[in-house]
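Final report, closing paragraph on structural work. Over the funding period we assembled a curated collection of sequence-structure pairs, and we close with a single example.
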Amino acid sequence: MPATAIVSYDGTDNDADALTLARVLGEAGARLLLAYVLHSAQAPDVDAGRKLLRRGAEILDQPSAETRLIAHPSTSEGLRQLAAREAAQLLVFGSAYRTPLGRVVPQASTQRLLDGGATAIAIAPAAYDAREIRTIGLLAELDDVAAIDTAHALASHFAAAVTDHGHGVDLLIVGSRPQARTGTTLLCAQTEGAIFEATAPVLVTTRGVALDFHTELYLA
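Its predicted structure, as stored:
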């Protein structure tokens, strides 16, 4: 099955960037689900949440896209539970509020999920313009087959080149530390710094689990 990607969307400009990145990943074969985490299950809030998700699906240019409305006091925990129920391999976010244009800054909920979370994480830059993906940066250990295979699968789809640096690329793939448990994310200080310096979307893979975009995989 292709990778299922849950897109966190709350109607803000930065979460519209997440929709733009999701469209790119959808073109590569990911199954997309739009999700909004409510902090109240009262009827007016539920109705507003449903309208918001319908608007997000229209922006995504997929009016019939699957949507999920979750009631949970914690955005990160609500998304974590939804990902487990849907067997999702990827969560897609926009950058934090007030992130400088063209830069990547994880939201607080994103940061919590990067610390030992059980899904890969993709983060769009603020005001993401979805330029053509011609170069994919790969920052990973030499034995990180999951990150390597994910990068080369996407490179195969986009006819892109893979490079071992994060500057001037159109997409940055970051692997998790060797100390991470299989199937979880865990960053080192160097890769955390690379994310904050990125000017392209960032995709952090879990340790040992490549994302399946139904493209030919490079065998490391």
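The longest helix spans residues 43-59. DSSP finds six helices and nine strands in the chain. We thank the funder for supporting this effort.
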